[in-house]
């Protein structure tokens, strides 16, 4: 069974700046969850992962501003923040 993200961050306008996903692991993952995970990891001193396999366990997203956005880009954005 797939996890679908129901959080309000799906509608965060910040994520409209993200590029559309070109189809890797991050394709259907929730960029909001990816961003939050990255912020958490960063606060714990965990270095950024270089590939989107880090997103594999995140819930998917099918609605809101994050739809079809690149979750890995959101992850990387959090590390630049
Ligand atoms: Zn989410």
Can you walk through the features of this model?
- This protein has 81 residues and is mostly helical.
- The protein has one domain (8-80).
- It contains 2 helices and no strands.
- The termini are far apart.
- The mean pLDDT is 85.
- Zinc ion is lined by residues 5, 7, 9-10, 30, 32-33, 59, 61.
Q: Topology, please?
A:
Layout: H1 31-43, H2 71-80
Helix pairs in contact: 1-2
Zinc ion is lined by residues 5, 7, 9-10, 30, 32-33, 59, 61.
Name some characteristics of this structure.
81 residues; mainly alpha; 2 helices; 28% helix; 0% strand; binds zinc ion
Major beta sheet, specifics?
none
Q: What's the total count of β strands?
A: 0
Number of domain units: 1
Structural class determined from secondary elements: mainly alpha
Order of helices and strands: HH
Compute the average pLDDT: 85
Count, helices: 2
Query: Cα-atom Rg, whole angstroms?
Result: 11 Å
> How much helix is in the residues?
25-40%
Question: How is this structure best summarized?
Answer:
The protein is mostly helical.
